[in-house]
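# step 3/5: fold
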Amino acid sequence: MNSVKELFFVFLVLCTVNSLAQIREYRIHDRGMLHETVFNTGEIGRGWMTGQAGNKTSVPLFEWPSHSAVVLEGIEYSGQHNILGAGMYMAANLASKPGKPNRIYALCGGVGASQPEVVFGRWSFPLSMEEIDNFPVLQNGELNPDYDPNEAEEIIRTSWASSVGVTVTRTSRAWSYPDYDDLIIYEYELVYTGDTDGNPETIEQTEELRDFMALFIYGFAPSMYGYQRHYQEWKYDAGIYRGDQNGFWDADYWLAFNMDRRTALDEFLAGKPEPNPDLFRYFAETGVNGGGFCSPQAPGFCMLYYDTNHLAKVIPAELDTLGQNESEAAEIMSTNMGEYFELDENWHVKQPWSNKVSTGNTRSSKMRDQSINPDKRWSGRYSPTSTTWPNPPSERWIGRAAYNYRQSVDAGQKHIVFGPYTLHLGDTLRYALAEVVGYGGQAGKRVEGGQTTKQWDYIPTMNRRVVLKDQVMTEHYLDDYGYPDYVNSDVVNVQQAAHQAFRAYLGQEPQVPTWPEDNPSKGVYSIPVPCPAPAIIVENTKEGAVRITWKRSVEKFEHPRLMGKLAEFEVYRSTAGMGPWEYLGSRMVGEVNSNNIYEFIDDDDAFKIGERKYYSVVSVDEHGNRSGRTNITPHKKNIGAVEKLDKVYVVPNPFIGASGFTGTGDVKNQIGFYGLPARATIRIFSYAGQLIETIEHDDPIYSTAWLQVTRHGQDIASGVYFYVVTTPEGEEASGKFIIIK
């Protein structure tokens, strides 16, 4: 009996552990300029969403630049988010159950239409998720003793089982370095474990998998802010699908990317310039709100590596029926390449299997039928008579999946498929891709897509003419206004970002055109590294200025690939987290205060009490290389707390009508208490001695506000009131104030 109870207890524990593991959760890549949300179900960004509910987001959806949310003309905009969703699919047949009706699918993210289809518990079964912060400088300002110089600064690793029986481990990496902060690299490891429900204690499937295929999918829409600003919605059929954007394929980098080409069919509104002419000029001239274009982004993804191990051997039916052995078949194949050129010398299908762009509708019935089945290569294949030869792609592309340019104007969905593979229990496949984004593409480069009637097009320039309401705003935008400062290095367009992704993955300069199948199955990541930015502290002074301080730890930073010796620190301020950044001054190495720390005082009177700004400090080396802005700190200006409680002032006193306290931004009915230490308790009494309210002040600022509401939620009446301020150290101050309504 006891043994039965023990077994039952073990069963409950296992069930509990399994259920705890299967929780859909996410982490956010926010180290570089490109921010992204990743889930432990395979989803990227969020569940695929093209409907009205897609208008807002609380998490980054391929957000570039970061910190881009804004309120403009009283309307809240979520910011520069660039995807409808993303993920990966898998499909296979058990050896004993061939044929499409018996096919097993796992659509792990990137599936749905106006609303996402549920992935969790249907196709994906979460196993683990962890985020590793490999920052060189800790939050306390000290160097990180565990910093690994050969790894990314930010790593998110997640694992999930699938209904196909293949367990996926995805490791994604991000950096803050200005040449590498516009990309995130994802490495996928697919292991045939036989686990089909997320409980690794049991194996449900051991049979050989045949015709296994892996698909990677993104829904691009550059960008949420631009579409919302022009149409007040970020909805597929009402904005993205109307032909405003086009998809492109750059075979040099195995790069699929999108660009905004027009607005309501108006070519002069490509890139979605700010529709208000006065605001357009102001944003363009100052760089506020990212400049004059609302949608200059060219978001995309490029394949860095795909597995050619375990590819299935495919004997053409014509040869198989003739009964030739492999050597005879190979001879026939070598003399009939025009017929069998889609196969390599090992009878494997040349990769990729499919390379398709399509509408944003990724409902499961459509995707199961069209995307990951061995019966048809839905995007077609390149032939010797392709009209794009020789630029691009090269002759090496003959027989591989073609880019189906005719749907490049739909442009809402791009996926690439690899396979078919034959997998036995324990077999492993690996893939790597990079999310990349730039300020437009490489202008003038001939790539595939962008048209319905011809296979290729030239990438349009962002140095374009802008016409708003019949008024020519500029003939050449970039000549007149330049790039916004979130374009923070010589890596500007999406091709350059893709190049850097290959450079990061390979640990050396890539050879262009790139061939992912020739690359290593795991990234090398030997990247040139600038001096890191320090961790900063921003605080108010009792004189009403702002003090920025940081430790000297960065001076001691060492790295085998350090780009240069630290020379100075530059201090910047901005009205928004995305910039533009105003240079305030610098501190040379060793220019510290009497406390042996770096200090910068911002005493600019134009920065008013109660306003909010952002600060950052950038490290600069002897060659002019700069760190990333990893220490962006929002700060609300006030007068710093006094060190010792003395006289406390009430402002205004008397309070007449709705004169208000101007120190908090919302002045209605507010009274301010000035002259406070960092911690104090304020008690307010009526003339009769009744306690009206107690305020706990716990903030290193000189003042706090009160809305004239009692502790019972009632507005106070006109009259004379008393206050008593006490501190934890036993100090006390008191006085009175008058309310006249």
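# step 4/5: annotate
The chain has three domains: 18-306+434-481, 536-636, 649-740.
# step 5/5: archive (pending)
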